[in-house]
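Worked example

This section walks through a single chain of length 311. The input is the sequence exactly as stored; nothing has been trimmed or padded.
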Amino acid sequence: MRNKVTVVGSGNVGASCALRLADKELADIVMVDIVEGVPQGKALDILQSGPVEGVDVHVTGSNDYQPTANSDVVVITAGFPRKPGMSRDDLLWANYDIVKATVEQVVKYSPSAILILVTNPLDAMCQVAYKVSGFSKNRVIGMAGVLDTARFRTFIAAELDVSVENVVAMVLGGHGDTMVPLVHSTNVAGIPLTELLDRAAIDRIVDRTRNGGAEIVKYLKTGSAYYAPSSSVVEMVESILKDKKKILPCAAYLEGEYGIEGLFVGVPVKLGARGIEKIYEIKLSEEEKAALQKSAAAVRELVEVMKPKLG
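Given that input, the structure is written out below as tokens.
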């Protein structure tokens, strides 16, 4: 029996996720969206690419959650995208109600699923999903660090004119302007980044990474990134469904790790069949510790605003 993955939201991120999941034959896929016809049409289009790609999975679309029953993983991309000049935090209330309603339906039909949140502001939406679902903390995960790290690696590889595969890096913290690229542990084929680039070049890359999403929004004008986010989601889904136990930076619920209590913040985790199977506390420089605390504080501000509703 094949695995089953539900993708909530059939916009650019959701549709790209469904396509990449199908192309990798990871699971049967259900696409859900409130707009009548959109998930059905996109699902049918992806399904019809199967004979060409040599892929045998079922892809279906729905406007309700009944067909999603007994999903192994549910990816939540539904919500309003960022527009030019809009911060992720501006999206807080706009997407709060969407995520809450979505999670309630997911819990009803797939009580054993693992949730992967993509909707922004990411870390705050994880908090909503965690509270509403009542799931254990290992089954609610935010996709942010994988994407932010991919951007960091991309810019480093471009600067040095080397393969992205040689760049080993990690970005921690909240998914926003306060994210924390770990410069001192970044290397290129084992060579420390600090030996290859001067401080000015590194600072420029770090700044571009922090504004990676905004840069794309600025170009697109009417939407936000979706190809790289969908790739990042699928890497997480694959690690879970295949029990690969990859160590990836994801938004996880912390209970004292890194001195952070009761918040979702991006940290290195082991992703396997049970979701988050381990949180790694790695040694940080004093500068990185301070930056991570600052990032957590930015997340906490949003969570405090939501407290009256979340309880």
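What to look for: The radius of gyration is 19 Å.
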